[in-house]
Design brief:
The protein is mainly beta and about 260 residues long. The chain has two domains: about 70 residues, Roll (SH3 type barrels); about 140 residues, no CATH class. About 5% of the residues lie in helices and about 50% in strands. Strand 5 and strand 6 form a beta hairpin. The radius of gyration is 32 Å and the shape is elongated. About 20% of the residues are buried. This is SH3 domain-containing protein. It holds the Pfam family SH3_3. Keywords: Signal.
């Protein structure tokens, strides 16, 4: 009778014990490993996704693995012991991913000379038009896109600005100030015949990847005007797309040769 009572007492104590105290770990030598997950993970007090969260472990952190099976690992990190998914561990130190900072554009937007740039719609907003690019000998750091003799446009770039105007005239469509930093505000100075005003425009991006019929362009500069219209500029190409305030494409580069 006494033995039966003792046996029942042991069974009762086992039933009342916290589940975490009953967890047994397979034999495993301690080792140093690293977290390699999609994001930061939680250390839990039991091998269950619904178990209490003890602490947050930053991705790529070094941890000490006390024991491990296919699903769960029992570890210690910063003085805390608990459980994480085994699949989040690696024995090799992972390279911490550092997102690249958007480039700051200070030059390089002039289109290359001795190329033919075809736009559809064209700068005039009409049918497909091809412009031949050549260095303008009369203006420092400038390239002209000519449709025919004396008809076309001229880009000018210096340490302070990037500009586009009508060739052989004093009319400019834009003069954007350098440097161009993503999410910053810069000025577009209108050098029109009767005005000389500054308009604040937003550099929406300097890291956009944009695909047109002319190819795929990386680190595209996207300039947003107060009315919602946008200008897309690419290194060595100048304008590759223009959108009006309704989001319609009014000019786009479709081929270069």
């Amino acid at each position: 009778m006494k033995k039966l009572w003792l046996f029942m007492l042991i069974i009762l104590l086992m039933l009342l014990m916290p589940i975490s105290l009953l967890q047994t770990q397979p034999a495993h030598a301690e080792s140093t490993q690293f977290i390699n997950a999609e994001e930061n993970i939680f250390l839990r007090d039991a091998p269950s996704p619904s178990a209490k969260q003890l602490s947050l472990i930053e991705n790529f952190s070094k941890v000490t693995v006390l024991s491990k099976d296919r699903q769960w690992a029992y570890i210690t990190h910063n003085g805390n012991k608990g459980y994480i998914h085994s699949k989040t561990l690696t024995t090799e130190k992972p390279e911490k991913f550092e997102p690249k900072k958007p480039p700051v554009i200070t030059n390089g937007l002039l289109p290359k000379a001795n190329r033919n740039y075809t736009y559809e719609p064209s700068f005039e907003g009409g049918a497909k038009t091809t412009y031949k690019a050549s260095i303008n000998p009369d203006i420092r750091n400038s390239v002209s896109l000519m449709e025919e003799d004396f008809i076309g446009y001229t880009y000018i770039e210096n340490e302070n600005s990037f500009e586009l105007g009508v060739a052989y005239s004093d009319v400019f469509f834009f003069s954007l100030s350098y440097p161009m930093k993503e999410k910053s505000t810069i000025y577009d100075t209108d050098y029109g015949i009767e005005s000389n005003t500054k308009t604040e425009v937003v550099v929406e991006s300097t890291s956009t990847t944009l695909k047109t019929k002319a190819g795929t362009f990386k680190n595209v500069v996207v300039i947003k005007y107060p009315n919602g219209s946008k200008l897309y500029l690419a290194k060595d190409y100048g304008i590759i797309r223009v959108k009006n305030f309704e989001g319609e494409i009014t000019a786009e580069l479709v081929s270069v040769n």
